[in-house]
Amino acid sequence: MKKKRPAPQNDITGIILANQWDENGNVIGVSVYTDREEIYIVAQNKRIKELVSLIQTKVRVEGKIKERLDGKKFVYVETVKTIEKENER
């Protein structure tokens, strides 16, 4: 009998921060920084411009997550949802 693999993680929550710039100083790459001190580099795809506009915003992203042999984690974003800050009392 084969062992079942755990379901792959396909969503993460964190803050979008810039991690790559072009020669003119424009942001061309971002990462998601989680509250568990994990960093997920956002793979270049059609959603990158949308994510650049959300820098310093807390979001929940869904997509394929891959980890390279060197330990770097990448997320291939399919959907993005902003998370509203809780009202301070």
What does this structure look like?
With 89 residues, this protein is mainly β. It has a domain at 11-48 and 55-71. The protein has one helix spanning 48-52, and strands at 11-21, 27-33, 39-42, 58-67, 73-82. Strand 4 (58-67) and strand 5 (73-82) form a beta hairpin. The protein is globular.
List low-confidence stretches: none
The tally of beta strands, per DSSP, is 5
Order of helices and strands: EEEHEE
Gross morphology is globular
Key structural traits:
single chain, 89 residues, mainly beta, five-stranded mixed beta barrel, globular
Briefly say what this structure is.
The protein has one helix spanning 48-52, and strands spanning 11-21, 27-33, 39-42, 58-67, 73-82. The chain is mainly beta and 89 residues long.
SSE diagram, text form:
Layout: E1 11-21, E2 27-33, E3 39-42, H1 48-52, E4 58-67, E5 73-82
